[in-house]
Amino acid sequence: TLVAAVTIGLREGRAPELAPPSPSAPTALRSAGITTLSPAGDLDAPPNELRWEPRTDAASYSVQVMEVDHAELWSAETRGASIALPPALRARIVPGKPLLWEVVAKDAAGRVVAWSGKQRFRIRR
User: Fold this and answer.
1) Could you report the per-residue pLDDT of 43-86, keeping only the tens digit for each?
2) Vertex 22, ends 18 and 26: CA angle to 5°?
3) Alpha-carbon distance 47 to 54, whole Å?
4) Would you say the pTM of this structure is higher than 0.70?
5) Which of 2, 4, 81, 96 lies 20 to 30 Å from 33 when distance is taken between CA atoms?
6) What's the CA angle centered on 19, arms 114 and 110, to 5 degrees?
């Protein structure tokens, strides 16, 4: 038991070795974030649109509005850094009910290059 404990201790004390990347393996890069502009926090009225900072590496954006349990209420695609909310969705945005939204940037091949994470908003009571 002592030999096993010493062997494990010595092995755990070393930094793990990383193999050099294979020239044929695809390179995975971490995506950066998207800065959301509005809506956010407590609002006086339902928002007319979703807005975020554009990214130079994005060809399109996917947006989603959802309940706090992540059930989707609406989603759409756009090439711009904002998108108008349809009247049917705006009618579902009621005082005191928090909602979430998220935007995902995609390159020309449809690969995700960045995402915003979930942004919360609600209409004041």
Assistant:
1) 999 999 999 999 999 999 999 999 999 999 999 999 999 999 99
2) 105
3) 19
4) yes
5) 96
6) 25
